[in-house]
């Protein structure tokens, strides 16, 4: 039972990332009708926002340590982060330690700006082009962004630790009545799950309960009628592209302590996220979220040693097998709508 609980927790952790990326993908497809293969690159850029902020906060200057010398007898110098001069040593150290949560605020305007630039500079020219053209151009953009990151940050992963308060593991089993130390789970992975749930709930609440969101949902259902009412739906859809980019970026920021950011992490998640979108149903936001958590949990259980011993390699293909089964039985996905990508 303890192993089952651990695998469920692992599945919720993976599913959180899948669901957030798939949610952004579905927002873009549902509003603009664009199949955006550069969305995984936005996830990567979000992770590197945390890296960039970390480098900025750790900019330092050399200061003389009075009364001390090195082994050659020269005056001893040490690097002191400039942030210490601005906020004091204690507050400066805390700011550096909480780099990843602070990167949330740092990344939001950056990712929204990147989303606007992508949509206005490139994507808008492909609205009426075939989906194959959209896939090719956005996939090419993803490769370009990955190579840019590789040029500036190198090919090796860059460690971006979580705050010290969230290092280590929680004795999760005690809460469920197990013996102490039976089920230990990393604090930050739990934080990531709750953060993802908060972002997903926020997006759904925005679309469901705000006037802006209601107009967007109406535009997703019948764009021409909304335009006839005198509403500039195109501007609202552009904003939604920026919102989708921000969602992907936030997913990347908070994932940085779990998997060290590297230039190809966007590609690693891209294909899986598209499978999640297709399984959930193209254009269905609830379907994308449900499929993300479902496939994450299935992948986690397929990675258990007892399962891998019986079916070697099943953990690598389980998501695709489930996708095949679902699409054979429900061609539109779990919650897909009639007429979406069927023309």
UniProtKB/TrEMBL annotation:
<keyword id="KW-0812">Transmembrane</keyword>
<feature type="transmembrane region" description="Helical">
    <location>
        <begin position="135"/>
        <end position="154"/>
    </location>
</feature>
<keyword id="KW-0472">Membrane</keyword>
<dbReference type="Pfam" id="PF02653">
    <property type="entry name" value="BPD_transp_2"/>
</dbReference>
<feature type="transmembrane region" description="Helical">
    <location>
        <begin position="42"/>
        <end position="60"/>
    </location>
</feature>
<dbReference type="InterPro" id="IPR052157">
    <property type="entry name" value="BCAA_transport_permease"/>
</dbReference>
<keyword id="KW-1003">Cell membrane</keyword>
<feature type="transmembrane region" description="Helical">
    <location>
        <begin position="160"/>
        <end position="178"/>
    </location>
</feature>
<dbReference type="GO" id="GO:0006865">
    <property type="term" value="P:amino acid transport"/>
</dbReference>
<keyword id="KW-1133">Transmembrane helix</keyword>
<feature type="transmembrane region" description="Helical">
    <location>
        <begin position="269"/>
        <end position="298"/>
    </location>
</feature>
<dbReference type="InterPro" id="IPR001851">
    <property type="entry name" value="ABC_transp_permease"/>
</dbReference>
<comment type="similarity">
    <text>Belongs to the binding-protein-dependent transport system permease family. LivHM subfamily.</text>
</comment>
<keyword id="KW-0813">Transport</keyword>
<feature type="transmembrane region" description="Helical">
    <location>
        <begin position="236"/>
        <end position="257"/>
    </location>
</feature>
<feature type="transmembrane region" description="Helical">
    <location>
        <begin position="17"/>
        <end position="35"/>
    </location>
</feature>
<protein>
    <submittedName>
        <fullName>High-affinity branched-chain amino acid transport system permease protein LivH</fullName>
    </submittedName>
</protein>
<dbReference type="GO" id="GO:0005886">
    <property type="term" value="C:plasma membrane"/>
</dbReference>
<dbReference type="GO" id="GO:0022857">
    <property type="term" value="F:transmembrane transporter activity"/>
</dbReference>
<keyword id="KW-0029">Amino-acid transport</keyword>
<feature type="transmembrane region" description="Helical">
    <location>
        <begin position="102"/>
        <end position="123"/>
    </location>
</feature>
<feature type="transmembrane region" description="Helical">
    <location>
        <begin position="190"/>
        <end position="216"/>
    </location>
</feature>
<feature type="transmembrane region" description="Helical">
    <location>
        <begin position="310"/>
        <end position="328"/>
    </location>
</feature>
């Amino acid at each position: 039972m303890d192993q089952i609980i651990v695998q469920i927790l692992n599945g919720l952790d993976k599913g959180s990332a899948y669901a957030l990326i798939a949610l952004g993908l579905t927002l873009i497809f549902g509003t603009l009708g664009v199949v955006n293969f550069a969305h995984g690159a936005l996830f990567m850029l979000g992770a590197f926002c945390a890296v960039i902020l970390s480098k900025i906060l750790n900019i330092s200057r050399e200061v003389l340590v009075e009364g001390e010398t090195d082994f050659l007898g020269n005056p001893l110098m040490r690097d002191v982060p400039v942030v210490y001069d601005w906020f004091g040593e204690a507050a400066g150290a805390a700011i550096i330690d909480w780099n990843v949560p602070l990167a949330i605020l740092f990344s939001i305007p950056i990712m929204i700006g990147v989303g606007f630039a992508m949509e206005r500079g490139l994507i808008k020219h492909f609205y009426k082009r075939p989906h194959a053209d959209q896939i090719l151009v956005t996939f090419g953009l993803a490769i370009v962004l990955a190579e840019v990151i590789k040029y500036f940050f190198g090919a090796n992963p860059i460690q971006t630790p979580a705050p010290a308060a969230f290092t280590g593991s929680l004795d999760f089993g005690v809460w469920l009545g197990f013996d102490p130390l039976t089920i230990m789970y990393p604090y930050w992975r739990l934080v990531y799950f709750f953060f993802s749930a908060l972002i997903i709930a926020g997006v759904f609440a925005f679309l469901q309960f705000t006037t802006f969101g209601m107009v967007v949902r109406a535009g997703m259902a019948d764009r021409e009628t909304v335009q006839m009412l005198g509403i500039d739906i195109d501007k609202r859809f552009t904003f939604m592209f920026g919102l989708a980019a921000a969602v992907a970026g936030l997913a990347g920021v908070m994932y940085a302590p779990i998997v060290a950011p590297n230039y190809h992490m966007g590609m690693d998640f891209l294909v899986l996220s598209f499978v999640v979108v297709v399984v959930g149903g193209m254009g269905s936001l609830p379907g994308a979220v449900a499929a993300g958590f479902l496939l994450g949990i299935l992948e986690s259980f397929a990675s258990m040693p007892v399962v891998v011993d019986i079916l070697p390699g099943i953990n690598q293909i389980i998501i695709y097998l489930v996708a095949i089964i679902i699409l054979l039985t429900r061609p539109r996905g779990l919650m897909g709508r009639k007429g979406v990508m069927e023309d």
